[in-house]
Amino acid sequence: MQVAIIGAGNFGTAIANIVSANGVPAYLWMRDPRQLAEIKKYGENRRYLSGHPLEEKVTPTLDLEKAVVESDLLFVTVPSASFREMSIDLAPFVPRETYVVSGTKGIEASGFNLMSQILEEEIPGRRVGAISGPNLAEEMADGHLTGTVVASRDPGLCECVQKVFSSNTFRVYSSEDIYGVELGGALKNIYAIACGMAARLGVGQNTVAMLITRSLAEMSRFAESMGANPYTFLGLAGVGDLMVTCSSPLSRNYQLGFRIAGGLSLHEAMDELGKLAEGVNTLHVVYQKRQQLGVDMPLAEALFHVLFEQKTVDELVSGLMRGEQHVDVEFAKPTSWSASN
């Protein structure tokens, strides 16, 4: 088995180390020759995952064709804005039998495409999947116990990813709902920005609990309207990823919201952060889509007004409190217990 990770950011680098620690050789492809030179000089990816030496079986490379042609399993972890371009570059080299898995959480604005859909369009005839979950790269690299979800309609792909990844510190669960798993990974970034704002404002724990659970309600409501299974959001790719991203300073989206609530503009906060926060682009495309679908998403709507229309952060609090008070759990199934009680 040979693996190639396409994209040497913090998550791609963490994946490469996990796979290689399991004894599987992995190419770590990057576009920038200066980054490659730095990695070879220091033995670690100081630009994105400083303090974590690369495992012996990780081979950093600029040679895209060699990395792809020689690999049985590809992980594509480039940012969503460049995902289609990267998929087009990959297409001529991907063997028919190779598994191709997205590790990128985001939505393409044009056409509202998820990353697996882009792979299917640009690299047709391959078996495609996605991984998502509460997977902060720094904690993965530190060896903290972590779980993720691999989603695909091909059970062989899921089994392969589980075999390559699974270790004493990393668990891999499977799902057939690839659309729901990917939507969970993308949508939670929106609400992490809101939670970062809440943290800076010093709100109480009651408020945080309500903010996170109502965020989950909006996510599952939107996903169900798009044809995904809302129950997927009860797992690692839904509530699990939402909780960690909304509560950890390691989250770029959380940090962005924290800075904006401190008085910075969106552009100032993004410049200071120095890393891409996927939630900004995701919020923009989801806001437009939910208008088309007529989905009630008061939190996302309020956050849109704050980020893109220069409304005050108080608008976010208003959005949390002005939504209609419907049932708590919209997708709860009736049970024999409820019928008899």
Describe the structure concisely:
This protein has 341 residues and is α/β, with parallel strands linked by helices. The chain is 52% helix and 12% strand.
What do you see in this structure?
The protein is built from 16 helices and 10 strands. It is α/β, with parallel strands linked by helices and 341 residues long. The protein has 2 domains: 3-176, Rossmann fold; 187-322, N-(1-d-carboxylethyl)-l-norvaline Dehydrogenase, domain 2 (Orthogonal Bundle). The strands form 2 sheets. It has an 8-stranded mixed β-sheet, sandwiched between helices. It has a two-stranded antiparallel sheet with strand order 6-7. Helix 8 packs parallel to helix 11, helix 13 (278-293) crosses helix 14 (298-308) and helix 14 runs antiparallel to helix 15. It is globular and about 55 Å long.
Task: Name the features.
alpha/beta, Rossmann fold, 341 residues, 16 helices, 10 strands, 2 domains, 8-stranded mixed β-sheet, two-stranded antiparallel ribbon, N-(1-d-carboxylethyl)-l-norvaline Dehydrogenase, domain 2
Reconstruct the topology from this structure.
Blueprint lengths: L2 E4 L3 H12 L4 E4 L3 H10 L15 E4 L2 H6 L3 E4 L6 H8 L8 E4 L4 E2 L4 E2 H8 L4 E6 L4 H6 L3 E6 L3 H11 L4 E6 L2 H24 L3 H21 L10 H12 L4 H10 L4 H8 L4 H16 L4 H11 L5 H9 L13 H5 L1
